[in-house]
Amino acid sequence: METLKFKTNIKCGGCIAAVTPSLNGLAGIEKWEVDTANPEKILTVQAQSEVTPEQIVGTLKEKGYIAEKIS
User: Fold this and answer.
1) CATH class of the structural domain 2-70
2) What domain of life does the native source organism fall in (predicted)?
């Protein structure tokens, strides 16, 4: 399992509710959370190695959100 982190524009509970079905629907994601208190709105994803950062970025983009992988 690996941890992926992204800077996002997910800023509130409503935003989290909007992306929850999509992120939960991605095979290989074990757990995810967004730190909305952080100015960069960090999304942390615990996922199996077959999940790519591009899949997560694309999934959020389909919902109208921006994500940028950070190291």
Assistant:
1) alpha beta
2) Bacteria
